[in-house]
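Newbie here. two chains, one complex. Structure please?
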Amino acid sequence: MNFLYKPWPWYVAGPIIGLTVPALLLLGNKRLGISSTLRQFCAACFPANIPFLQYDWKKDIWNLYFVGGILIGGFIGGGLFGNPNATELSQHTVNDLRLLGLTNFNGLLPHELFGWSNLLTWQGFLMMIAGGFMIGFGTRYARGCTSGHGIFGLSSLQWTSLVAIIAFFVGGIVCSYVLLPIILKP
Amino acid sequence: MKNLKYLLVGIVFGLALTKGEAISWFRMQEMFHFQGFHMYGIFMTAVPIGAIAILLIRKLNVQTFNGEAIDIPKKPYHHGIILGGLIFGFGWALTGACPGPLYAQVGAGYAVTIITFISAMAGTWVYAKFQPHLP
């Protein structure tokens, strides 16, 4: 049963992710896009008379089931059958991250950075709280995320999504090269 | 009950994201530094498979299993695509997550990512509040 704990290679995970696009279309004319569920939760919980949140969020309730499924999939794949070994990263990445003080490459997130005790350090605040805020603000402003633009938008050959994914990567590269070393340098 | 099928697709999708390490903070750093092929391999298989499927759906005029028409609306351009995209890119590199992986990280038992998720909701809410004033 060892294989259940092993990570999947890209040529297994990638095609399954790609097949989600036609699966949702064929099941009910639904378009893959996950960041919109953040707007749904805001509209459901804190609408506060904001026009952007006054819409029929229940119409897309299917998407809340879908992200509920992602949560369960994460629990099965990362909780029940999580990979007990360190991520098989490129040696260059391991070396770079070691220089920034990381020693533990197990799991999906560095335990040294993503923990409750780090939340109120300025590093933890920037990475978890400010980082999360930028995900929510940025994806709604860009009208989509890696799934809506990166997978669905590119699959349907929309040039706006290509612009979006280039912007995502430019932001990510600048942050990973410039900001992260500043945050993590002891 | 009719929504349960989306839960099932979500489970498979979430499993692929998690087992494929597409929710791994480490993999994101590797990707942004162009030091490994793994994440690019995922994009370069997922997107063409999705594209071929959509091409077939369009060419053959395929309908949903219930006989509904399938439509794929155009995503119009506005400056937020670039400005919001850059902001999201920063959040992506910091947290190692996009909105989808955020759900998977919470499910995988990284309890503190609930705070990241709540912050993402706060970000969406603040966007909604200032939306009329943004370019």
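Moderator note: The mean pLDDT of chain B is 96. The longest helix of chain B spans residues 38-59. Thread marked as resolved.
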